[in-house]
């Protein structure tokens, strides 16, 4: 590991005194939760809860992306006749999502794991300030030892703001929180060279280094029974996650102890190797793009804390604000009359930044009535 990466790495985990944890996103397809039946399969779900709890006890941070809302809604309403109406599907999702969460909450309680529901849409991940909000929520849940259970906000999301399938949603979640590993649990073992149900020559692929056209061809456009995605959306998800430095494994949810075995690195399912760490990728991402034209001017003490101690930029160290920007924009960080030495994602817009410049952290909430923490969080900051 380069020394620069180490700085970033320790900065990321400096909030906890414990060693860095493995952050794992587990995506559960409808077919896994129902074990192929039309109903939620409680024995299957309790087994998944048990495995997640065991991972958390081992010091991992776990996030679950759970499908099954629409299936649960159908079950709860006594299997109404299928309808192509969107409002009907949204109704199923509204009824099913609360049932789904009630079941998860009960099952996780057996293992003393507290859960929190987070419903997202594409808009929450793509707009810069909502991105920060969604990420803050997930990280706060993790920090408190609470397991986030995430689904798409199917009851209200319109087509334009929908991710559409939970494979892609789980990859966005992995990106959002810088996960080390994304596990896509489904009803088949992983990726085959062709459809194993139709082609007796189909060969299993245990490991993928690069997702190229050939891999995409193999995934085809297969679509399973109750769920939305097929192998094609799993490959899309793997591509997004891999690009951000997250390792991805597609595996069969019915295998005994599948989650723990994947995490232990056993050869089970198809593993898409990550090319670099999430932090390294994040650093590249922060550096990509044009140099920002707006800046925060800081005093010598703040510059020192940022440069040598990997700290966040607090309002108290800010002596000036140059230009107009919005929450979530990229800003330069420099001392007056000097070249920029860092850049980062700012957590307040320029008007607010001017109001709080020079204030101590506890004074921010007094002045504004709320606080989004430091002006630039160390995880969003890169020395240049
Ligand atoms: N969000 C949908 C549900 O909970 C599932 C989407 C998917 O399976 O990809 O029913």
Structure notes:
- With 384 residues, the protein is α/β, with parallel strands linked by helices.
- It folds into two domains: 3-284, Carbamate kinase (3-Layer(aba) Sandwich); 291-383, PUA domain (Archaeosine Trna-guanine Transglycosylase, Chain: A, domain 4), CATH 2.30.130.
- The chain is 41% helix and 19% strand.
- The chain contains 15 helices and 15 strands.
- The strands form three sheets. An eight-stranded mixed beta sheet has the order 3-4-2-1-5-9-10-8, with helices on both faces. Strands 12-11-13-14-15 form a five-stranded mixed beta sheet, sandwiched between helices. It has a two-stranded antiparallel sheet with strand order 6-7.
- The longest helix has 25 residues, at 86-110.
- The structure holds glutamic acid (GLU).
- Glutamic acid is lined by residues 29-30, 67-70, 151-152, 154, 165-166, 227-229.
- Residues 29-30, 67-70, 151-152, 154, 165-166, 227-229 line the site of glutamic acid (GLU).
């Amino acid at each position: 590991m380069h020394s620069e990466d180490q700085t970033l790495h320790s900065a990321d985990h400096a909030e906890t005194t414990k060693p860095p944890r493995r952050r794992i996103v587990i995506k559960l397809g409808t077919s896994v939760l129902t074990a192929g039946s039309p109903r939620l399969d409680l024995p299957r779900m309790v087994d998944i809860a048990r495995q997640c709890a065991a991972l958390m006890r081992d010091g991992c941070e776990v996030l679950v992306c759970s499908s099954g809302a629409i299936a649960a809604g159908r079950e709860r309403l006594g299997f109404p006749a299928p309808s192509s109406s969107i409002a009907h599907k949204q109704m199923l999702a509204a009824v099913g999502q609360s049932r789904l969460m009630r079941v998860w909450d009960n099952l996780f309680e057996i293992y003393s794991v507290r859960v929190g529901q987070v419903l997202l849409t594409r808009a929450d991940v793509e707009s810069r300030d909502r991105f920060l909000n969604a990420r803050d929520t997930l990280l706060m849940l993790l920090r408190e030892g609470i397991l986030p259970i995430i689904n798409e906000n199917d009851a209200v999301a319109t087509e334009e703001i929908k991710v559409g399938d939970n494979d892609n949603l789980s990859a966005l979640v992995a990106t959002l929180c810088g996960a080390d590993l994304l596990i896509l649990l489904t009803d088949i073992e992983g990726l085959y060279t062709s459809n194993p149900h139709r082609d007796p020559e189909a060969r299993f692929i245990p490991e993928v280094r690069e997702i190229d056209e050939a891999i995409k061809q193999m995934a085809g456009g297969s679509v399973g029974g109750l769920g939305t995605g097929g192998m094609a959306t799993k490959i899309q998800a793997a591509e997004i996650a891999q690009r951000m430095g997250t390792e991805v494994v597609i595996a069969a949810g019915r295998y005994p102890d599948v989650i723990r075995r994947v995490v232990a690195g056993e050869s089970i399912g198809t593993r898409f190797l990550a090319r670099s760490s999430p932090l390294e990728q994040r650093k590249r991402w922060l550096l990509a793009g044009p140099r920002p034209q707006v800046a925060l001017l800081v005093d010598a003490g703040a510059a020192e804390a940022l440069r040598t101690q990997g700290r966040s930029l607090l309002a108290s160290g800010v002596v000036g604000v140059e230009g107009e920007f919005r929450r979530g924009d990229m800003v330069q960080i420099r001392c007056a009359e000097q070249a920029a030495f860092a850049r980062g994602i700012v957590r307040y817009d320029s008007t607010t930044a001017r109001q709080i410049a020079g204030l101590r952290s506890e004074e921010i909430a007094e002045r504004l009535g709320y606080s989004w923490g430091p002006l630039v969080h160390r995880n969003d900051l890169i020395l240049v």
